[in-house]
Design brief:
Largest sheet: 8 strands, mixed
Strand content: 25-35%
Oligomer: single chain
CATH class of one domain: Alpha Beta
CATH superfamily of one domain: Alpha/Beta hydrolase fold, catalytic domain
Helix content: 10-25%
Strand order of the largest sheet: 31-32-34-33-35-36-37-38
Shape: globular
Amino acid sequence: MNPVDDAPRAKKIEKQLEIHNDVRIDNYFWLNDREDPEVVEYLKNENDYLEKKLKHTEDFQKTLFEELKARIKEDDESVPYKYNGYWYITKFEKGQDYPIYTRKKESLDAEEELMVDCNALAKGHSYFKLTGLNVSPDNRLLSYGTDTIGRRKYTIQVKDLNTGKLRPERLETTTGSSTWANDNKTLFYTRKNPETLRSDKIYKHKLGADPKADELVYFEEDDTFYSLIYKTKSRKFLVIVSSSTVSDEYRILNADTPDGDFRLFAPRERDHEYNIYHHEDQFYIITNISGAKNFKLMRTSEEETDIKHWVEVIPHRENVLLQDIDTFTDFLVVSERRDGLNRIHVTPFDVSKESYYLPFESETYTAYSTTNVEFDTEILRYNYTSLATPTTIIDFNMRDKTHKVLKVSEVPDGKFDSKNYEEDRVWVIASDGKKVAISMVYKKGMQRNGKNPLLLYAYGSYGSTVNPSFRRNYLSLIDRGFNFAIAHVRGSQYLGREWYEDGKLFNKKNTFTDFIDCSKHLIDQKYTSPEHLYAMGGSAGGLLMGAIVNMAPELYNGVIAAVPFVDVITTMLDNTIPLTTFEYDEWGNPNNNDAYTYMLSYSPYDQVKAQKYPNMLVTTGLHDSQVQYWEPAKWVAKLRELKTDDAILLLRTNMDTGHGGASGRFEALKEEAQEFAFLLDLEGINE
């Protein structure tokens, strides 16, 4: 490393961590204490160093910020949707960071009622998040949750929409979501464990009562499960669901009788995942029972919900992943995935009428059912988008198959035209013979000569699939010559449930080798070269970034690792950290010797070694509850100690926020502008 470099150096205090007769030395374990002034000083020193190293890009960052801001329609509003006699609308006003929630009674021509102005609630807070808006059945009361720290511990309050006044009760340390019983005075909500933040207790609150007297109606004892409560779309049942990574269990109660007892729907079994949907006098169930890896659809009556009564509706299919359903009075809508692409299938309950798929042509599109809260309607609302197509909201008439475009997300900078871009999907043969897809977008006329900068993005965990959707901010890279690409690596469900299973637990390394194989393919096919290839991922995708820079640093000129999960062993051995116990079935439990050995072999922090690394920008939030700030901080400290290159290594800690980063829409753009300036600067692009 360059001896004159003035990068911060964290002091080393040896800490021995022993398990399974194996001792790990962690010299930066002391960074785990956010109350320690020395820790805060170190993080601030890293922030100062970042400012210094990127000072020459400050004007460019401002240019990029204004560019990003110009692509936002500052005074925007959502397409209204109707629920229980009211039209609901979300608005943004010019210069304001946060949304405003309003409604109109019966007609869109009616007077607009203000429900919540998040800008007013956010005043005086450096971070603000509102979630769980829920209106009582009589349309009079509104419950919602707010978080002003970023730790995802929400306080629920109730507002009287007739008077505009808040009721006195405050329900603390919750998920932010709540559910009204049909009596308009009973509110169910989920409380979190204050230390682990696991949502494990469902409470019943009676309006006007002291929250301390709220009745505990369900406690989830298994610390690998979390719980939540909601009401069915039919509004007939309250539903408690407990879920782990590999199992689900539901309990139901008629919403007209909130003081009754919840009834078990079907008992939990390891490796049995299911979801329930109420329709008239029966429940539909998406389930993986009896080896249905890609899930099948079954149904049963309201009264007889045990598994032995379930009847098959849609069988398991080897090449189709059943993802979700929407029920309407006369139609069943199924969302599925085949060959990586979303499909929407409509089945009339009238057996004399034929079922059909909505027609989509492209290879890089995303389509999904969206706000369909009304039951008795023939209109299906869905969103359509692609890497070069802004999100389009469409109302589709399931009876006559006509459609109406309600809104196309505007890019109001006056420059964007989707015709200027090409989209593509290419397939890569991975090192074990599996075919991995890459979706990409670039400016028309790009020459494949190995000289183009390319940003390769991936996530690859939890079965979460990164869909090829429009990302307006990335136009700042694409318009300057970048190709933006998504690697659909294993660990997602892009090619079905097996694609996920092949990228978790003892198959986790497939996620990393898939990404590396995609990178090599893009280089071999002259889309780019190692001098111009960049990688990006966040959270569990940050783990992916940490793994690839250890395994194949020579392939990348730069890497952005956002809130990266990199200290795998230490975190997964600490069951006081949020998410740890819930995630044993994703990563493995390192208390088991075999799991420990495998996880240690890829844990980015543990595998840092004396070698050259790419230029890197690492980001975190001091109050992050998902990936604790100390993971990225320790990782950067160890990289500084061991790396043998002169490449740039930067750590940005947002001292006010958590896992989601800045909460205001404009503040978040400043962070993104800085990240883009980092990448473009490495390409020698500064305007």
